[in-house]
Description:
Elements: H1 3-12, H2 18-21, H3 24-31, H4 51-55, H5 69-80, H6 98-112, E1 130-133, E2 136-139
Helix pairs in contact: 5-6
Amino acid sequence: LETPAVAQVKRLMHGKDAVDVAAWAHKVNKKYPWTVEFHFQRQPSGRCFDKELMRKPPSFSDCPDNRCLISGLKHFYGRLVNKQNVDIQWPSGMKLTDADAVKFLINLMGDLHQPMHFATASDDVGRNIMVKFRGKTMSLY
């Protein structure tokens, strides 16, 4: 970012760095559970086992109400640059600030790099993949 942009982001985040607000969106999830869907981009079932599907780019089509990772990134970025290209309906009375959009972007950029956040719908984006670790069965996610 250019120096003026860095200064603007710092102002929006009250002087905090990205690392200080990286988990902010997960706190929002507790208050507004429907925002959890922004953290995931569901892929077609069998994608990891079907050679034809594996040759294709990731699917961005499974995104009800534009509540998925890629649409979330586009929405919050568009909001900040005044070029809204993905519409997301927020509950009445819920107002997001530009600072909230920056914090969502920071968190979702991290999610974009998490392999389980691009998992299939059939295994509930990894939550239904069970492993045994030190004698205890648990979710891989």
